[in-house]
Write a structure and sequence with these properties.
binds L-tyrosinamide; Ribosomal_bL12_C/ClpS-like; ATP-dependent Clp protease adapter protein ClpS; elongated; protease; 3 helices; about 110 residues; disordered N terminus; 3 strands; peptidase activity; alpha+beta; Ribosomal Protein L30, Chain: A
């Protein structure tokens, strides 16, 4: 004869949750970042450096002056951290602008 089968016969019936919760950690790849560095020299005018920092790095006059003074005193400073392409563009813009104005200002980049 047919035997009735109800939920109450189940070992993991209602109220008895045996499901497993797993956490996945997707391996996301962040692009490497590059520091753009400004180097000190004895000839480039301070006002020119401040102008470069305002123009190409979007810094306020106060921020630009502060970084310029750090470079002047310490020899170099990190101006910003960017993706490879943006860092490369900033360095090229600064080097080109300095060369056109016949100042020896040097700007480089290095992997963070
Ligand atoms: N040392 C320069 C001067 O006395 C000023 C200067 C600051 C030059 C920062 C370059 O990246 C620099 N006129």
């Amino acid at each position: 004869m047919h035997e009735a089968w109800t939920m109450t016969d189940r070992k993991d019936g209602p109220g008895d949750d045996t499901s497993i919760v797993t956490k996945t950690r997707p391996k996301t790849q962040r692009p490497p970042l590059y520091k753009v560095l400004l180097l000190n020299d004895d000839y480039t005018p301070m006002e020119f450096v401040v102008h470069v920092l305002e123009r190409f790095f979007g810094l306020s006059h106060a921020q630009a002056f502060e970084i310029m003074l750090t470079v002047h005193k310490k020899g170099l400073a990190v101006v910003g951290v960017f993706s490879f392409e943006v860092a490369e563009t900033k360095v090229a813009q600064v080097m080109d602008f300095a060369r056109r104005h016949q100042h020896p200002l040097q700007c480089t980049m290095e992997k963070e």
